[in-house]
Design brief:
Radius of gyration: 20 Å
Oligomer: single chain
Length: 268
């Protein structure tokens, strides 16, 4: 499929791991690439490898998305480059430590990257995509968006935001020709775990998916039209039931009177 021309995919956090695999798979699907990450040397090496293997045009755009000037530069590229038809919001960091002993500056940096940068990039790309009635935004979330009992609560909160934000985009993009997808990986064999403070070798191997399998499954989810893709979940009905229960709460969440359980009982 690499001889097709699907435009250009901009992939953040693409120097290694999940981002690098997305870059490879999208190139093989017919996309040219713009690779975004901090490490220019790694980007250059990957770009040369992908260009040789796929024949696609591969550009590197070194940027630290937690640096305002760099983030704005990537935003501007998304706003002004008409060749860009896909954004893969993959860049992110995590933590496995408890909240009370976490470095608040590190948590702030996590929020800036996982939430603020992701939001700004998506909203930089979206208007042009909608105007052209063509575009794809894939936001990488995590299963901790649904399970607050594991890893760090701030990290979990950032990924819950990614899910909610993607669902909101989907609603606004109705009939626009723009596709969105949130991907919720479970434990995946990347250097994420070293950075988070829990080496992947210390995890039960029965819960760890290889990164290439995760990305390939997620792209199948995209192909079959999923908004929310959970590569490890065996039965999609379980997610559908969960989401349906959430939606069933909606008409009951804002009412003119407090629920009976909150009303003072008269003294006996």
């Amino acid at each position: 499929m690499a001889n097709q021309n699907k435009g250009t995919a901009l992939v953040t956090g693409s120097s290694s791991g999940i981002g690098a695999i997305y870059a490879d798979r999208l190139a093989r699907r017919g996309y040219d690439l713009i690779l975004v990450a901090r490490d220019k040397a790694k980007l250059d090496t990957l770009a040369a490898k992908l260009a040789k293997a796929t024949g696609r045009k591969v550009e590197v755009l070194p940027a630290d998305l937690n640096a305002k000037a760099d983030l704005r530069r990537v935003e501007e590229r998304l706003k002004t480059d008409p060749s860009i038809t896909a954004l893969i919001n993959n860049a992110g960091i995590g933590s496995a430590g408890p909240l009370l002993t976490s470095d608040v500056d590190q948590m702030d940096a996590m929020i800036q990257l996982n939430v603020v940068a992701l939001t700004r990039l998506a909203l930089a790309a979206a208007p042009a995509f909608v105007a052209r009635k063509n575009g794809l935004i894939i936001n990488i979330a995590s299963i901790v968006a649904l399970d607050t009992d594991v890893l760090n609560g701030t990290y979990s909160g950032t990924k819950a935001y990614v899910v909610n934000f993607t669902q909101a985009l989907h609603k606004e993009f109705k009939d626009s020709g723009v596709r969105v997808q949130a991907v919720l990986p479970g434990a995946t064999a990347t250097n994420f775990w070293d950075i988070a403070g829990v080496p992947v070798a210390h995890l039960p191997q029965g819960i760890v998916m290889q990164a290439d399998e995760m990305v390939d499954a997620s792209l199948v989810g995209l192909d079959i039209g999923e908004l929310i893709t959970i590569p490890s979940l065996p039965d999609v009905k379980e997610w559908e039931n969960y989401d349906a229960a959430r939606k069933a709460l909606t008409p009951k969440l804002s009412r003119a009177q407090a629920a009976d359980r909150y009303k003072k009982k008269s003294a006996a």
